[in-house]
Amino acid sequence: METIFRNLHRIDRSNFFSAKAIFVKLVYRYDIDSITALTLRMLFAIPFFAWIAFRSKNTKTSVNLTKKDWGLIFILGFLGFYLASLFDFIGLEYISAGLERLTLFVYPTIVLIIGSFLFKRKIKKAEMFAIFLTYSGILVAFIGDIQTEGPNATKGVLFVLASAISYSLYLVGSESLIPKLGSVRFTSYLMLISGLIVVIHFFIVRNPKNLIQPPNVYLYGLALGILTTVIPAYLTTEGIRMIGSGRAAIIGSTGPISTILLAWIFLEEPITSSGIAGTILVLTGVLWIGRKKRT
């Protein structure tokens, strides 16, 4: 029962993240660029991370951080949420929400490969089989979309692929710090650093007047900040603590399925027969890895 709960825990997180591409696409309808959209997201999220960080620091179980710890937190924040988010938002300027999800969800494979090299962690046959089923399904679901995105599709895919690599490095690197700091404190500090880097970047390259937007944009920004940043960030870190980055990443692979449905509802992206076939393969892969973890 505990393992089932952990798997559902990760699926919930992936569903929150899946809504991110939808809200970003809605923001882009107001002719807003990627760094401005990302800044709005973080401006709404930073107060929550600051409040939670303050509360977690004053708990009896909190530990003092060394310079090495702070350095690693900064690197992980830079890679995992600043660069990964920036590349992802730029990519979404050129490709659909569905294709973005296809490309971004290369990251479970990258996590397992990095982990196998750094920690000599053998990739089990069940994990390899789950990867095969999951990504075969994602490929089938979006193969038609790749052909219709136009000349900018390659640029968008490359940016999102860079995002996946950055995020994978964060997932692997975070495993050593989470047990020491606890998932809540670690996430709070890391996201605060990432958010501040985003804001500094914005004020260097953009006019502050760009933050003056219609009310709907602020509503989308609030949703990006809370629903697709604050909540899934803590769920992600807790998932890594519970089952490790490699397996956690695979369980999170249901995200593209949520994106298909949300994009159909809110962005009018069609659901095709290839999408349905891909959905079946992805769910089979996720259920397979869950069954193997229980045995």
TrEMBL record:
UniProt key word Nucleotide-binding: no
InterPro entries xref list: Diverse_Substrate_Transporter, EamA_dom, EmrE-like
Highest taxon listed in the record's lineage: Bacteria
Alphabetical UniProt keywords: Cell membrane, Membrane, Transmembrane, Transmembrane helix
A Pfam family recorded for this sequence: EamA
Intracellular or extracellular location(s): Cell membrane
Topological category with respect to the lipid bilayer: Multi-pass membrane protein
Keyword Mitochondrion assigned: no
GO cellular component terms listed in the entry, alphabetical order: plasma membrane
Domain EamA, residue spans: 16-142, 155-289
Transmembrane segments: 35-54, 70-90, 102-119, 126-144, 156-174, 186-205, 217-236, 248-267, 273-290
Stated name of the protein: EamA-like transporter family protein
